[in-house]
């Protein structure tokens, strides 16, 4: 079998491997869908236009009420290690004090530094 996998689009590492439909880079931990030419077509932006990527840290820019509960995610809540997914709620994350949840990118701002 002489299947060769493409290099990582983030760090150009040749050591990519495949897990189900994903290609994964062991050096920078970047994941992408096998067969997709680039991730640029599916860029996700925060509330001010910064491009988000897996593993970023973001802060919530407005109070968010949780459906079915009386809980609220307060403005300024810092969420670490986000994961981008397809769909209306395009961020999967763990919010401190709340747990796993899906957020919309329009309600977060990327933290730099």
Please describe what this structure looks like.
This protein is mainly beta. Helix content is about 0%, strand content about 35%. The strands form five sheets. It has a three-stranded antiparallel β-sheet with strand order 1-2-3, with no helix packed on it. The mean pLDDT is about 85.
List the helices and strands and how they pair.
Layout lengths: L16 E3 L2 E3 L6 E3 L10 E2 L5 E2 L5 E3 L3 E2 L6 E2 L4 E2 L3 E2 L6 E5 L3 E5 L4 E3 L3
Antiparallel strand pairs: 1-2, 2-3, 4-5, 6-9, 6-13, 7-8, 10-11, 11-12
Protein name: Alkylphosphonate utilization protein
Pfam families: YjdM, Zn_Ribbon_YjdM
Family: Belongs to the YjdM family.
Could you tell me the mean pLDDT? 87
Task: Name the strands of the widest sheet in spatial order.
Answer: 1-2-3
Q: Regions with pLDDT < 50 over 5+ consecutive residues? A: none
User: How large a portion of the residues is in β-strands, by DSSP E?
Assistant: 25-35%
Largest sheet: 3 strands, antiparallel
Q: Separation of termini? A: 44 Å
Helix content: under 10%
Number of strands: 13
How large, in whole angstroms, is the Cα Rg? 16 Å
Structural class: mainly beta
The coarse silhouette is elongated
What is the overall number of helices? 0
Q: What is the chain-wise order of helices and strands?
A: EEEEEEEEEEEEE
